[in-house]
Amino acid sequence: MNIEIWSLGKENEPFIEEGIRYYFKKTKPWNPIELVLLQTPKKIATTDVERTKQQEEELILKKLQAGHYLILLDERGKKLSSIQWSQQFQHCMNQGTKTMVILIGGAFGVTEAVKKRADQVWSLSDLVFPHQMVRLIVAEQVYRAFNILNNSPYHHV
Length: 157
Hints:
The protein is α/β, with parallel strands linked by helices. It has a single domain (2-149), classed as 3-Layer(aba) Sandwich (Alpha/beta knot). Helices cover 43% and strands 22% of the residues. It has helices at residues 14-27, 49-63, 82-94, 112-117, 131-149; strands at 2-8, 33-38, 68-79, 99-104, 120-123. A five-stranded parallel sheet has the order 2-1-4-3-5. α1 (14-27) packs parallel to α5 and α3 packs across α5. The mean pLDDT is 93.
């Protein structure tokens, strides 16, 4: 199963990028993973929140394919433990999911159409994090989930 972390927004700061590469490299022996940055063209960027969300919706839904299993990260989503993340990954692999997409929505959230398209909606925390930090946290949690699935000592119970 391929895992793609999709995130709206700008490129990562170097220290974030280094951390993401670190966890991707460590995850690679078990599973392919990549970061996909979705950016609205600068000329159509706007301060109108609803218009911005609509533009982001168009990018997301256009890129999604029928075989993608979409997990939306949203502050109102279901909170899962690291073990539950690993169980969800195992379930998707058992179901033959080709590509799992973990979507980090835009600064204003996502539209109802994107929420409806999501197969699951998860929350990382009640806290709010910058998008770049979420990318790093998700990269680490994917690595942790595969360590759990492979009985590696990285995750301590």
